[in-house]
Amino acid sequence: MVRFSKKIEYSLIALRYISNAKDEIITAKEISGKYNIPYELLAKILQKLKKENILVSNQGVNGGYKLSKPLNEISLSELIDKIEGKSGIVECLHTDNLTECFIYDSCSIKDPINKMQLELENLLKNKMVSDFI
Q1: Which of 7, 9, 57, 122 lies at a 20 to 30 A Cα distance from 44?
Q2: pTM
Q3: Backbone angles phi and psi of 102, in degrees to 5
């Protein structure tokens, strides 16, 4: 089974919480406390989302985060790529260097796995983060 990492799970939780807050500024500490998410990890995730222009932040005493664009404009695929980087369901599908796979030339499942990878990518491109709100 394909699984979302904790980073993706926490990203979705945080984005949902920030989205439901409308135009209020939300802090990492607030989300961390409410959902019992490790603060340091969540802070890094929110900084990454800011760097990737999904969130905007205000600095200072009243600082925090809010959305920079609606969640229906962000695909699940885009979120995963921005948080985790490009990946595949098997190692040879997420590397540029196929020589790292010592059985690639004789692999009997690479074609069906590649097809499954493309189907999964299409599914994730068509699911928006707003679908989780």
Answers
A1: 122
A2: 0.86
A3: -75, -10
